[in-house]
Amino acid sequence: MKLQAVIFDLDGVITDTAHLHFHAWRQVAADIGITIDETFNNSLKGISRGESLRRILQHGGREAAFNDAERDALATRKNQIYVESLRQLTADSVLPGIRELLLELRQREIPTGLASVSLNAPTIIRTLGIDGLLTFCADASRIARSKPDPEIFLAACEGLGVDPQQCVGVEDAQAGIDAINACGMRSIGIGADLHDAGLQLLSTDQLTWSCLSAFWHHA
After folding, report:
1. Is 139 one of the annotated active-site residues of the chain?
2. Would you state the pLDDT for residue 219?
3. pTM value surpassing 0.70
């Protein structure tokens, strides 16, 4: 049975902008009297901007202090800070082994997809210089439910015209692993603090074609 597609999350799998998100959220949170640290920031991995803000407000005991318009303004401010920081990214910001894997998959004519809830994903992919190596990127603006809901992965599969059960998804966040599993894909987790991944790797440089192929044929 041939692997129909490999679908990747963006942050923590293709590149690492977690520190940029953290600095942006920390600044916005500080402006409204809430302190967050990197440990708390880990709980925001893989979820949407709106849900991240809700958790920050809840963390600071200020969930009822802002109306919808004010929350939108806070989320917009965070995104402005984050987008400005994306200027730091270059083609060298692709995580180890990922560019080589994408090239190998293209050579083998295996479609690749992106399933990121980040509205900045297209900009980031272009900045990294790998937009030509991804067959289809799901449009996060059309997604109503964030991970762990499988909607974004199902959208990527639909865009590629593939059966989720004949695909592999790659994630670094637990919410993402749960989303992959929920739509019947086989899951690969990157990182130590994950559970229920079909295959767990400690870093992206372990995600080679031979590793991926062995997992697919023997899972």
Report:
1. no
2. 63
3. yes
